[in-house]
Specification:
- This protein is α/β, with parallel strands linked by helices.
- It has 13 helices and 14 strands.
- Strand 5 and strand 6 form a beta hairpin.
- Helix 2 crosses helix 3, helix 5 packs across helix 6 and helix 7 packs parallel to helix 10.
- The longest helix has 18 residues.
- The chain starts with a helix and ends with a helix.
- The structure holds S-adenosyl-L-homocysteine.
Amino acid sequence: MSCAPIKDNRNSLLMQASLESKIALVGLNRRELETILSEFSEPSFRGQQLFKWLYRSRVDSFEDMGNIPSVLRKNLEEKYNIHSLKLIHVTGSTGESTRKFLFELQSGEKVESVLMKEGKRITLCVSSQVGCAVDCDFCATSSMGFQKNLSVGEIIDQFLQVSKESISPITNVVFMGMGEPFLNYDRVIAAADLMNDENGIKLGAKRITISTVGITPKINRYADEKHRYKLAISLNGSSQESRLQTMPIAKKYPLDELLAAIDHFSSRSRHPVTLEYVLMAEVTDSKEDAEKLMTLLSKRRCKLNVIPYNEIGGKYKRPEDHVIESFIAALDKASFPVTVRWSKGTDIAAGCGQLAIMESFVNK
Ligand code: SAH
């Protein structure tokens, strides 16, 4: 008798495990959905119907897929899940300008996305990897080490699930959360393509920005493939020495190679590349740095986005406001546009480079 509840419990745990090991439909493109439907001898137009349910209507259950025959809905449900992520925690309440979303993968790891509101612009910052292998000295994500690449589904599901929590539609997506997008290149591009698809989410290509630390072979590939998503590159130093000081990756992909890749991109794209420059006190914030940047970029078609450092409790500090202002003033004569990103959400560790899954937070 006393064993019965245990057995029941085990059965339900097994059921749960098998549920969790189902394949998620989100992340699949039209052709892949058609292949799945052909297993059930369904005509290919059902692929388009399913695509629209997933990405345009963004349903959470098979039952809601009105024009899909009920037998097919049941068959699909037996083998597939809709979502690939479980939303487990939201920091910040509806209406606040910055909110952070913590998701659990089917394999148990966690990733975060950040939703930012500024006027009419609602930007979602998505993660492309669990942790990061790049090891920039100033970034919180690097402390997690590299755990895994996210699948297309795990990237796109951040968008689908957060879009339901947002009071107005998401207008922009930036691949600036955890991870290095160009070390998960194919999946990141496939996820951006899904966001851009006119039968689904329909986000304009210019509203999607992919930010890379500077993986030069992938920048060249991106240029050759002529993708139309905006490209941002984390320069974060005014010379090879200065980049190397905080970014060990600069050894593998030195500045001259990076500049060549930037030039190659410019020769293939009508759009300027954005160079991100994190301003760290006494590391990257001198007037000489500003001058070197002007020389380095003078003949290049680019924009410079200066990001005052968001502190993470380590050795780097944010420069004082007057230093930030003089740095910007020193760039006054630059031949390229200069903008400053006053990161949002630093109070909830949701600013650039502050994303890291702390066990203490996860276990709460
Ligand atoms: N791996 C990608 C995208 C993630 S980081 C990349 O390197 O571009 C997104 C941006 O935040 C990068 O420009 C990065 O240099 C910057 N960043 C990282 N840590 C930061 C911090 N603590 N404060 C401000 N910006 C930071």
